[in-house]
Every structure is written in structure tokens, then in C-alpha cells.
């Protein structure tokens, strides 16, 4: 393992299921059971339009040939390395003080159940290490799958490390491309933490915004705010069997991606497009609230639900979510309300996961991923 007690800065890289760009966070970490993380700098670098198009091409298994995946693996490694160098240079971070980079990579396929469970995140760690001169930990999910888990969610471990041990019961709710919940009971131990993917977060909204309006997302929730919820469509969408499946569970673009969105577009030709956007926005909020009702409240009555991720910046979505959670007397906050950063949250998480890796410590939560045992995650590139 790489250990240098004189270095306490870690850089995390995250590119999520929305595939809109690279989040890079520099974090000062001091050790302990619940390490203290101080965010030093954060930057988001959007993918060039052509690169984003090429990534989405790989989401279609018919197009994801070995040559395309291999080239993109190295190209993303270059883009990630450049993002780290930009963060260091723009924010005056001393390169010699950086212990390691933790890179999630770009998920292009995730199939954690079946005869041969598997997952694939690309963005070559060796290229990142070479371009930056800093060791890189990447490919975090495979070790959990090898241990019998779903390879996700991984962020709950870092949420426990940062938020656990308090006197309130908290649901930490991420709304990225996929929505996922981490549940921290007051004073809970690591093996009492549980987490799971609720279902789609921004993924369906973004996809249909592109289909209907040529936009990458519903900026400011304006389209959703202009329409009304179609109750019949919402009920039909809520009938998907994934929502009733008990945790641990994980999902992604394979289930709620392009083909799923095309099926929605196919059955909503007689519904105003704005109403469809409003309805799928309400779907995300309802799925989260129903997950709380069905899987969380029976074992943990929450005091607060704290939202992070891009969905927290959609006021229409947040309005739907607050209205739904009022039914259960749960107060809804954003990461910013708590003095944190929704944008930087997941990049910070992978900086912290890299910290655990180089300490030679496990950093998955079997209670969240379904793994048979705790595992040291990631592969180190020098």
C-alpha cells in the first residue's frame, strides 16, 4: 500500500450516470473512525459534446464494441488527468501534498445479478497517474461484486464516516441520474447502515428533455413547473416491479435508460410534452417517498432527509419531494442547508474511498451492497 503520513490531501473524481461531465474535488482528510474532510477546491468540467455523444453510444450494447470501449477508456483517462491538473493549477494546490487520486470512472455497463455478475467503469487509472504524477485508485466497484455484492451503492460508506454517530436519524438522499438513499439511525454502528437505489433520479427527465425539447436537462425545473401531473401516466409508471423489490438493490441505465424513455414517449403521444416532464419529475419524488414508506420507516423513523446531487437544484422536483415527505412528518433539507456541497458530494466520497484504500482498509458496507464480507476496494496505478 501507498502510505505517506505527511500527505493529507486527496483528490476525488466522479462522473455519474448522467454523463454530463467530470467532478473533481480536493479534500483535506484527517483520520479517525469518523474522518474529518475539509473541501479545499471543486470544479466541474463538462464533457465535450462529441465525447458525451460517444459515451452515450457505448450505453447501447449493440454499439459498444471492444475497440470503442478501449479507445474511450484511454480518452477518459486523459480527460480525468487534465481535470486534476486544472484543479491543482487553478486553486494553487501543492502537487507534492496530494497523496492519491480516487477516480470512480464512467459506468458503461452494470449487471450485478445473473449468472456472471459484472460491472464496467472506464477512464484508465494508469493514464491519470501518468498525466498528473500522482498515484490513482480506480475501479472501485469490482471488488464488492467479487465479494458477492451489487457493486453499489458505495457512497453510503463515506456518508456513514462523515455523518454517522449523531443523535438524529437521517436519510441522505442522492438525486443524480439514479436516486439512492442511505439510512443512518441515531448512533448506528457500520453494520446497521443500509442503503439502496430507489430508482430513476434525473435520468428519465433528462432523456425526455432531450427527446422533446433538445435540452440536456430541465434547467431550474421550468418545464416541470409549467405543466401538470398526469395521474394515469404516473400510476402506470409506478407499477414497475423494481420499486417493490426489497433492498439491497441497485439499478442504472440498463433498466431506466434510453429504451425505457423511448417506451414512455411511445405511450404519451396524446399527452402534452410539458405534462410528461411534470409527471416524470413527480415520479422521481414519489418513488423516493414510497421507498421511505415501504423500506425505511418500518425500521427507522427519520428526523431529516438531506438531498444532494443535481436534483437538489431542481426546485420543482424539490417541491414535489417536500410535499410527499410531509405525509411522513420528515423535514427535507439540501446539502447546502447543512453547510455542505451537493455538487461536490460524490467526488468527495471517492477521495475518501481512495484514502481508505491506501490505508489498506475495507470501504464497502455489506449491509448496503449485499456483499458477503467487507472488501478493500479499488486498483492502484502508480
| Residue-averaged pLDDT | 93
What are the secondary-structure elements, in order, as H or E? EEEHHEEHEHHEEEHHHHHHEHEHHE
**What is the CATH C level class of the largest domain, in words?**
Alpha Beta
Number of DSSP E strands: 12
CATH architecture of the largest domain: 2-Layer Sandwich
Task: Based on Cα principal axes, name the global outline.
Answer: globular
Structural class: alpha/beta
Q: Portion of residues in helices? A: 25-40%
Number of helices: 14
Q: Provide the β-strand percentage band.
A: 15-25%
- From the N-terminal CA to the C-terminal CA, the straight-line distance is 11 Å
User: By CATH's scheme, which homologous superfamily of the largest domain applies?
Assistant: ATPase, nucleotide binding domain
Briefly note the CATH topology name of the largest domain: Nucleotidyltransferase, domain 5
Question: Structurally, how many domains make up the residues?
Answer: 2
- What oligomeric state do these chains adopt? single chain
Low confidence ranges: none
Radius of gyration: 20 Å
Main sheet attributes: strand count, strand direction, barrel closure: 7 strands, mixed
Walkthrough of the structure:
By secondary structure, the chain is α/β, with parallel strands linked by helices. Helix 5 packs across helix 13, helix 6 packs across helix 10 and helix 8 crosses helix 11.
